[in-house]
């Protein structure tokens, strides 16, 4: 992890972008049944009766999640490098790791908020993506595409702080303090992902619920702002109304945290190993070059002595 190992080679922005996209798509494909269960629970519709039904919409879901995860990975790397200020001899503190991740999540909301809005409104208006976008812009302007933006910023900041910040920090602490887990890094990663995923679900679910209400009500007839929406939901349905569908979402977040971190760690380990191998080859080449320059000198001195 970044917090405990100076020897690992950081990924470039392009590499973070690619790894994030792959990790986001992979975790979505693996967990599509969990998402389907969550959607059915929230919408009150029956569960699928066959395997294809559980995976219906997986391509759209993966195509939506992958670019957002890619953006979060990329900006997380950029912000981490900015915090280091060129000093590669030190590790980021736990707070800096979490702060960089939160910042990356907040930045990703610039893209994620209108994507969420279009998804919700497309289902509501029963139009294709282009006509949904045109209708919203014509009626509410470009600024209308960012209704619920502050809620999305808060949700993504907390969510990304969880999987790119808190999860690796917890995992690193577990490995550092437990001999048992030090010998079982996979178990430590699972525990770290589950702890961070559960906390992220608890803190972000009410915000996500309020955001969904806001973005489904473009005119603001029933829902005015984030805090007002949460207050109304609590007064009419109790705190349970803010946590509807939380269990499957928690399972999904824990799985997403684990998969994305494993993909990132695998990429970092691969790059570090290749860099180490190149270093050894370079060192061997230098030694060989040194030998080549000394051999003729020895031969020359021998001939002079004779």
What can you see in these coordinates?
The protein has helices at 13-30, 32-43, 51-54, 58-84, 94-125, 129-140, 149-177, 179-182, 185-216, 226-237, 246-305. With 306 residues, it is an all-alpha fold. The chain has a single domain, classed as Mitochondrial carrier domain (Mitochondrial carrier fold, Alpha/alpha barrel). Helix 1 (13-30) crosses helix 11, helix 5 (94-125) packs across helix 7 (149-177) and helix 7 runs antiparallel to helix 9. InterPro entries: MCP_transmembrane, Mito_Solute_Carrier. It is found in: Mitochondrion inner membrane. One of its GO terms (molecular function) is transmembrane transporter activity.
Short description:
Helices cover 79% and strands 0% of the residues. It is built from eleven helices and no strands.
How would you sum up the global shape?
Answer: globular
What is the CATH fold-level name? Mitochondrial carrier fold
Stretches where pLDDT is under 50 for at least 5 consecutive residues are 293-306
| Element order: H for helix, E for strand | HHHHHHHHHHH
- Whole-number average pLDDT? 86
Output the structural class: mainly alpha
Helix content: over 70%
